[in-house]
Amino acid sequence: MEQILSKSQFKPHALQYFREVQDKGVELIFTDHGKPVIEIIPYSENPEETLNRLRNTVVKYDRPTEPSTSS
To answer: CA 13 from chain center: how many Å?
Structure first.
């Protein structure tokens, strides 16, 4: 389960949000002017779980030897 909140909602309720992540496993996404900027997820000691979150996030990369962004 994930919640999307603005950054302005975070400051006065930070401890409450951290407890939700810790106790309930809630994932939080904070926005700045409607654009997602920060994600807080529960910590996992299992590296496989972290890697599973990344699975299928890269769609296609045609030039692996070139920089991924242009300057």
So the answer is: 18
Write the pLDDT tens digit of every residue in 36-70.
Answer: 888 888 888 887 877 887 788 777 778 778 876 65
Give domain 2-54's CATH architecture.
3-Layer(aba) Sandwich (3.40)
User: Half-sphere exposure of residue 41, counting CA atoms within 13 Å on the CB side?
Assistant: 8
Shortest CA distance to 25 belongs to which of 8, 40, 13? Answer: 40
Structural domain boundaries in the chain: 2-54
> Among residues 59, 6, 61, 13, which one has the least CA distance to residue 36?
6
For position 70, what pLDDT does the model report?
Answer: 55
